[in-house]
Design a protein that fits this description.
Elements: H1 2-14, H2 19-22, H3 41-46, E1 49-56, E2 66-74, E3 86-90, E4 117-122, H4 152-169, H5 181-194, E5 200-205, H6 207-218, E6 223-229, H7 239-262, H8 264-267, H9 273-289, H10 298-310, H11 315-328, H12 331-341, H13 348-360, H14 367-380, H15 385-392, E7 416-421, H16 430-438, E8 442-447, H17 461-473, E9 487-488, H18 511-518
Parallel strand pairs: 3-4, 3-5, 5-6, 6-7, 7-8, 8-9
Antiparallel strand pairs: 1-2, 2-4
Helix pairs in contact: 5-6, 7-9, 7-10, 7-14, 9-10, 10-12, 11-12
Length: 522
């Protein structure tokens, strides 16, 4: 009990966290989940059961208004004396739906997942949880104004769009004031209580690693085994994190262009990375003047290639769409790729992303500061900077009051396994090193040269077997002195294209996990 009180006091004093989270009184006692059939076909086939969990909108007022979280469960299959407890899973975002991720246990090598009850859930505001946030479903329509604000008129257009989206979100009611990371962490603890578990095991990807770090600060004695893949840097939440991403994505898109050039016999887009890059930006300018098929303009062109900066698994498909457009004028191939990452008429993930990031912390209120910072970053990293700036610009006008981020302290968490590819653009490697510093019971596995974000359980035997060993026995790589990884694995090899019209065959994550991760890749 003393450890919980100490962590709560530290958060309240060091970070100014709301007493509603750190010292909620009276404590909420959730009802049990009423399990029943799942509506999702994949979950049905996996043998999952689904239900809804009633939680307070505001944990400072547990008797007040309530909302519901969608949860799923696939129970352990080992004998009871080998059971290792519940395993919560989150795919990140913020705003990612994790309901299908109860199926993840079957994909852990050595049958290590069979010892756990795997729990998927949609965080508050997301997906099947009630209410689900939506502000303007058509915000990501086709042929939007060019991202780079080269004229005052373009800049004002995007400021007006951003303010308009924030204004539309104001109609979402009180949920907007209670959707911070700390609220989701308390929801995770409510899931634990509703399942009758003394502790949780946890597997978090991307932003899910931030949830894990905050949960480990507020509820350290409730964490058992923890895997965090694609580790958020808690020092950069959230404005600076996005600027850091811009530079990293620019580096990674150049790695992608080099790969296209290395396979020029297949794609015929340039014999060097510089030639492919020049063609990319030439097409971007032409599509700004005349969108492909009337729908894929310069913004959509940028967006459809962004996933290549996240994952090498996306390289072949994006390169093929690029080649099909250049050689055959096939704009529908471009549209298909764009729509796969930006489903028409669905802004739920975006609405929740902003609701969390804009209220976790106060963003700069001065647009001149945003302008200066983003132009300076654009000069060295033009690929994604202004696209990312406008993605986050509604935070300038956000209608809910921001809080202060928790001062993360994992010193009382017994163990954690951290994973990071060293050229991960979405969560750059320094974030994993920072988490290792703050979680002295953790060990870090890095993949030098790897550019994939949150790529575990994708068939990399070196990495996945160590995850399995940890989940089976609690065994971690021995912690080494200094500030660096404790173990390394080679990343999966770059894909080898099979030719136009045929995607390369390579190890990859289960499709439902890929979909959950990619739904909020920005």
């Amino acid at each position: 009990m003393r450890k919980v009180v100490t962590a709560a006091l530290a958060v309240g004093i060091l970070a100014g966290a709301a007493p509603a989270v750190a010292n909620a009184a009276p404590e909420y006692d959730p009802p049990p989940v009423q399990w029943g059939p799942c509506t999702d076909e994949a979950l049905q086939k996996a043998g999952a059961e689904c239900g809804m969990l009633r939680v307070p909108l505001d944990y400072a007022d547990p008797a007040g208004e309530h909302i519901s979280l969608a949860v799923s469960r696939i129970k352990h299959t080992v004998p009871e004396d080998q059971y290792q407890g519940v395993m919560l899973v989150n795919p990140g975002g913020p705003g990612g739906s994790g309901l299908t991720l109860s199926a993840l246990g079957a994909y852990v090598p050595k049958n290590a997942g069979a010892a756990y009850d795997w729990i998927g859930f949609d965080p508050r505001g997301v997906g099947a949880s009630e209410p689900a946030l939506s502000c303007d479903p058509d915000y990501f329509s086709y042929d939007r104004p060019h991202y780079v604000p080269t004229t005052p008129e373009l800049e004002q257009t995007w400021l007006d769009r951003s303010e308009g989206y924030a204004r539309a979100c104001a109609d979402s009611g009180e949920l907007l004031d209670h959707i911070k990371t700390t609220d989701v962490v308390e929801d995770m603890d409510s899931i634990r209580k509703a399942l009758g578990a003394e502790q949780i095991n946890y597997y978090g990807f991307s932003y899910g690693t931030y949830l894990g770090q905050v949960y480990g600060t507020l509820h350290p004695d409730r964490m058992r085994r923890v895997v965090m893949d694609g580790v958020v840097n808690v020092e950069d939440v959230w404005y600076q994190a996005n600027l850091n991403q811009d530079v990293a994505f620019d580096r990674n898109i150049k790695v992608f262009f080099d790969w296209i050039a290395a396979h020029d016999a297949t794609f015929h887009l340039g014999a060097t990375g510089a030639e492919v890059e020049a063609l990319f930006y030439q097409q971007q300018a032409e599509l700004d003047r005349e969108p492909a098929g009337g729908v894929i303009g310069s913004d959509e062109w940028t967006d459809l290639f962004l996933t290549a900066g996240y994952s090498q698994a996306a390289w072949d498909g994006r390169a093929q769409a690029f080649a099909s457009w250049i050689h055959d004028g096939d704009w529908q191939a471009l549209k298909k790729v764009y729509d796969s990452a930006n489903p028409p008429g669905d802004d739920n993930g975006f609405a929740v992303y902003l609701s969390v990031q804009c209220t976790d912390v106060q963003w700069p209120r001065s647009w001149p500061k945003w302008r200066r910072d983003n132009w300076a970053t654009h000069e060295k990293a033009p690929f994604e900077t202004w696209a990312n700036a406008w993605y986050n610009a509604p935070c300038l006008f956000w209608p809910a009051k921001p809080g202060k981020p928790v001062e993360v302290d994992g010193s009382q968490v017994d163990s954690a396994l951290l994973i990071s590819e060293e050229l991960d653009a979405a969560t750059p490697f320094p974030g994993a090193l920072e988490a290792r510093d703050r979680f002295p019971g953790a060990s870090l596995i890095s993949l030098p040269g790897g550019t994939t974000h949150s790529g575990s359980l994708s068939g990399n035997t070196c990495l996945d077997d160590q995850i399995a060993d940890y989940l089976l026995t609690g065994e971690l790589p021995s912690r080494k002195p200094g500030r660096g990884p404790d173990a390394t694995c080679e990343p999966l090899p770059q894909p080898t294209p099979e030719g136009l019209g045929t995607l390369s065959k390579r190890p990859h994550q289960p499709e439902f996990l890929q979909e959950a991760l990619q739904a909020n890749w920005r």
